[in-house]
Amino acid sequence: MKPLLCLAELLCHAGLHATYVNPPPTHQRLANRQALSTHFPTLHFESISDGLPEDDPRTLNSQLLIALKTSIRPHFRELLKTISLKAESNDALVPPPSCIVTDGLVTFAFDVAEELGLPILSYNVPCPRYLWTCLCLPKLIENGQLPFQDDDMNVEITGVPGMEGLLRRQDLPGFCRVKQADHPSLQFAINETQTLKRSSALILDTVYELDAPCISHMALTFPKIYTLGPLHALLNSQIGDMSRGLASHGSLWKSDLNCMTWLDSQPSKSVIYVSFGTLVHLTHAQVIEFWYGLVNSGHPFLWVMRSDITSGDHQIPAELEKGTKERGYIVDWVSQEEVLAHKSVGGFLTHSGWNSTLESIVAGLPMICWPNLGDHYIISRTVCRQWKIGLQLNENCDRSNIESMVQTLMGPKREEIQSSMDAISKLARDSVAEGGSSHNNLEQLIEYIRNLQHQN
To answer: Least buried of 11, 211, 217, 438, by fewest C-beta within 10 Å?
Structure first.
């Protein structure tokens, strides 16, 4: 949601119209719709049914995506036709659609776009390296690297051009760990990714200079590729302080503002910030291990612990409660960009989601990576092995390992990691400034969409 909303705002800031479409549960939780529409008069919000019961948890998996392909498609088609009919009546504020920008996971939009004769631009939530790896899955099957022939997860993956010497079996997404090449989960992932080749253009939330080796290969498959990342930083560079005042990135949770007062009281670069994003769930045992590791590290910590991050009501050891009162702060949710930019924060313990990784890079904060699903493994491997701006935590999340990692990241040995991060952070910030690659690509994308409007 967040980067797509940033993209919609950027297009509206340039004078284009954008209609941002969500299913009802998300639409209703996006509390700042009115403020956004006020500041961006050409930004419109619509809600269409996803065909699921109101109380459905909508857990992101292949079953949900299959359901969406069939249940939401007719509602989406009807919305586009309604907008077009209103536009033809000359009494609507919204012009007829000239193109569709879709989340790359929402592949039913390709069928609707082709049926209505509209160009479709695919924005992809995962990092480009993950997308490129998924595009190479048929080749990995063909050359015998998938399915895995044994249980050695350290075997190098050699069939992804541009990522030589980086990937191991353990870095591939979970659906690659099946035993048969025709397994439904693997085939679903392959088919969905191959659908993206029908795009008129590909939009990537990355810095071209960071992912050039993969993008150069992807350019042989897609007619146009626009790298616009980091999108949140590109938006900030375009509209300045107004971005923060609007809470323009559309969080679905209410932020705890008191934590900022607590951060103000902490020494510079002393706090380790901990967040596992919106999708990751932990067992109670994992929560306790992380908690002990943070308390025992001796460093102040700010931990975002969503109310749904673990199930059940469990007893918390007294020493953890005591240690947290002395030097910790636990919140349900925060404005992450604001926290990462705070002078007292010195490191980020993260699940390695792409949004969080880009936000950490812009803020110049080294990371401790604990990947969990999807593209997290490839991101973590890239961050720690190739870019050398983080440390990778093992999957077992042992408290002593967590303690050691925090002390290394926040202690005197961090200088080498920080030096690498400073260089990459500058590269990211330069890319969104005037003359930077993302800034220039945004101008080209806007011109491309304007030309599409003139053709209609």
So the answer is: 217
Domain ranges (residues) in the chain: 2-248+431-455, 258-410
pLDDT digits (tens, 9 = 90+) for 358-389: 999 999 999 999 998 889 999 999 999 999 99
CA atoms of 78 and 280, how far apart (whole Å): 34
Residue the block writes with tokens 């099946």? 178
Same fold flag, 2-248+431-455 and 258-410: yes
DSSP string, 341-368: TSTTEEEEEE---HHHHHHHHHHT--EE
Q: How far is CA 393 from CA 6, 244, 345, 381, in A?
A: 31, 32, 20, 11
Going from the C-alpha of 354 to that of each of 128, 203, 366, 373, 383, the distances in angstroms are: 10, 15, 14, 12, 11
DSSP-derived letter for residue 279 is T
Cα–Cα distance list, 253 to 123, 241, 279, 415, 450 (Å): 24, 21, 13, 35, 35
CB environment 95-121: b (16+ within 10 A), e (fewer): ebbbbbbbebbbbbbbbbbeeeebbbb
Biggest CA-to-CA distance, the chain: 68
pLDDT value at residue 88? 77
| CATH architecture entry for 2-248+431-455 | 3-Layer(aba) Sandwich (3.40)
Q: Which class would CATH give 258-410?
A: alpha beta
Rounded CA-CA distance 198/111 in Å is 10
Q: How far is C-alpha 29 from the chain's CA centre? A: 19
List the one residue out of 83, 95, 84, 117 whose CA is nearest residue 16.
95
- Residue 226: Cβ within 10 Å count: 20
pLDDT one-digit tens code per residue, 171-195: 999 999 999 999 998 998 999 999 9
C-alpha 276/C-alpha 369 separation (Å) is 10
